[in-house]
Design brief:
Blueprint (H helix, E strand, L loop, with lengths): L5 H4 L3 H8 L3 E6 L2 E14 L26 E6 L3 E7 L7 E12 L1 H7 L12 H7 L17 E4 L9 E4 L17 E4 L10
Antiparallel strand pairs: 1-2, 1-6, 2-5, 2-8, 3-4, 4-5, 7-8
Amino acid sequence: MTILPRSFYDRPTLEVARDLLGCVLVRQLDGERLAGRIVEVEAYIGQEDGACHARFGRTERNAVMFGPPGHAYIYFTYGLHWLLNVVTERAGQPAAVLIRALEPLEGLARIAALRAGRPRREWTSGPARLTRALAIDGALNGVDLTAAGPLVIEAGQTPPEAAIHTGPRVGIAYAPEPWRSRPWRFWLADSADVSKGR
């Protein structure tokens, strides 16, 4: 499979978000490929976006967002969960796409072990679930997704336009309008692995 090049991410964030649907997130773990098709994402765009981590400016936590596109921005939230984002647009313009859900494709036995006690439906159907399923944590923050390594995104099958739905982002009640209602969440309507908040 072809790893997405940096030019894929060096574009307007909403375009990248839509185009990530159907691509394949790959985690190399102890010599094994754990992979899933991306079926749900959310876009966060710049310091003016009231829901974006960059809204208060550059900090140690969000510095990767201000860097070059094509890198993983991974942060810890609620003292419980790691969440995976991909950095978009030019360096200095803080923007990223949150990977919200995957359809598991490869390494299913290892994924099942990492999600022990959870039914198949709950393996990767949410941003915190998928990072647990693929053993993604802060150690991978800043990793270059465009070079062969522990975490990459490969080109996949482009879904038909009719399969792509949009709506407001999830879990951003703190954000003022109009940001709370922006339809910057994209998902594949026919996927059983989309998170509950659809």
